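Structural biology now treats backbone shape like a language. To illustrate, our science desk offers a sequence and the tokens encoding its fold:
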Amino acid sequence: MKGRFVSGIVTGSLIGATAGMLAMTRMSPRRRRKMMRVGKRIASTVVSNIGLF
């Protein structure tokens, strides 16, 4: 059960990262910089909350 859960998370994150990169290539540079800042903030929040799992 736990192995399937982890593999689902990994697969979902890979799909999300691919879709995110595709969207980033179609954005204007200013919007891209803003999204990078938001992404860094989200990533730091996720890393700090990993202890919950």
